[in-house]
Design a protein that fits this description.
The chain is of the alpha+beta class. About 30% of the residues lie in helices and about 15% in strands. It folds into two domains: about 5-80, Beta-grasp domain (Ubiquitin-like (UB roll), Roll), CATH 3.10.20.30; about 90-155, [2Fe-2S]-binding domain (DNA polymerase, domain 1, Orthogonal Bundle). Strands 2-1-5-3-4 form a five-stranded mixed beta sheet, sandwiched between helices. Helix 2 packs across helix 5. The longest helix is centred in the last third of the chain and has 14 residues, at about 110-120. The protein binds FE2/S2 (inorganic) cluster (FES) (2 copies). One FE2/S2 (inorganic) cluster binds near residues 103, 106, 107 and 140.
């Protein structure tokens, strides 16, 4: 049902343009999951504390639960569904498999999107800095060590795009 409170919003998500009518208070996370049916992005806390909802917007990692959909009108968004190159997994996806970097997998999409953003930022030079800059992404399973190992392996492999 359309009401006068709705705003027209255009989002480019993983290369596909979506024209949407959104209530101004709907989070980007809910837009992705419920309007565009991309459920790879996870809702953990819905309060900016776990990182499960991390996506990449205009090249920067953000928490989609703390972002309103209407704020990102005209933006390019990459979710976990868009990080692979066709059948070829993203280097971080491969590294997560190789380094045993997930158990239940619930935090994994946010971890990978956050790691992509973190590597693009180019600030982390040491393991401690990687840990620090990934500290907004929590893992409730025991995969944190593998996650950092996977990210460092990709970083050492020269990935920065
Ligand atoms: Fe967004 Fe937890 S769901 S930070
Ligand atoms: Fe289960 Fe991280 S793999 S929360």
């Amino acid at each position: 049902m359309e009401t006068s409170e709705m705003h027209s919003v255009i989002l480019n998500v993983n290369g596909t343009v979506h024209t949407l009518k959104l209530m101004p208070w709907v989070s980007l996370l809910d837009v992705l999951r419920e309007k565009i049916n991309l459920t790879g992005t996870k809702k953990g806390c819905d309060h900016g504390q776990c990182g499960a909802c991390t996506v990449i917007v205009d090249g920067k990692r953000i928490l989609s639960c703390l972002t309103l959909g209407v704020m990102k009108n005209g933006s390019e968004i990459t979710t976990i569904e868009g990080v692979a190159d066709g059948e070829n997994l993203h280097p971080l996806q491969k590294a997560f498999i190789e380094h045993d970097a997930f158990q239940c997998g619930y935090c994994t999409p946010g971890q990978i999107c956050s790691a992509i953003g973190m590597l693009q930022e180019g600030k982390a030079k040491t393991r401690e800095e990687v840990q620090d800059l990934m500290s907004g992404n929590l893992c409730r399973c025991g995969a944190s060590k593998g996650i950092i190992n996977a990210i460092i392996a990709v970083q050492e492999g020269g990935f920065n795009e």
